[in-house]
Amino acid sequence: MALSKLEELEATYEQYATIIEFRGLKRDTGLYGAYKNIKGKPYIILEPDQPEIDKQVILREEFMHFLTSVGLIVNQKQLNNRKQELLARRLAYKSAISIDDLIKCYNLGLQTNYEIAAELELPEDFVLNAINYFKTQVSNGTVYKGYRVNLSNTITFTKVRSKERIAIN
Q: In Å, how far are 38, 48, 156 from 131, measured between CA atoms?
């Protein structure tokens, strides 16, 4: 039997950090997920009372905190803490969705964020935020793997002739 996306992530991330579910995390902290280093050992803590699709993206973001964050960053009034939060979130977007994924959705005829989210098995608001992030990273008209990137309210693609192909990172 195939593993769910959440189970795949847990299997991968558990090699680096202990993942625990703590009922009441949201009630006690206002958070659905947290990363904490206790006596040099990394822990990712998740609120179990949430849909698996949401838990998956929270796990991604908390793992990105494990990779990038330094110190306690709960106080989001501090600029450095906000920067660390934003970095982890952006890395979570990139780990969950690639331009290749969006091209695949385009080729399947999927146009709305809802359709793309369903195909990628991600929450719709996460997909919207990821697309908005990608729009800041890719220039309108950039050609990637034979597709011109068109930026508007969303990202769309146009197949280009082979002589126009230029790769982007």
A: 35, 27, 10
C-alpha 114/C-alpha 19 separation (Å) is 29
Residue owning tokens 């609120």: 47
Give the residues across from 37 on adjacent strands.
42
- Cα 126 from Cα 121, distance rounded (Å): 11
51-65 per-residue burial string, b: 16 or more CB within 10 A, e: under 16:
eebbbbbbbbbbbbb
Q: Which of 52-56, 87-91, 134-138 has the lowest mean pLDDT?
A: 134-138
Question: Residues with Cβ < 8 Å from 116, sequence gap 6 or more?
Answer: 102, 105, 110, 127
Give residue-wise pLDDT tens across range 50-81.
Answer: 999 999 999 999 999 999 877 766 667 778 87
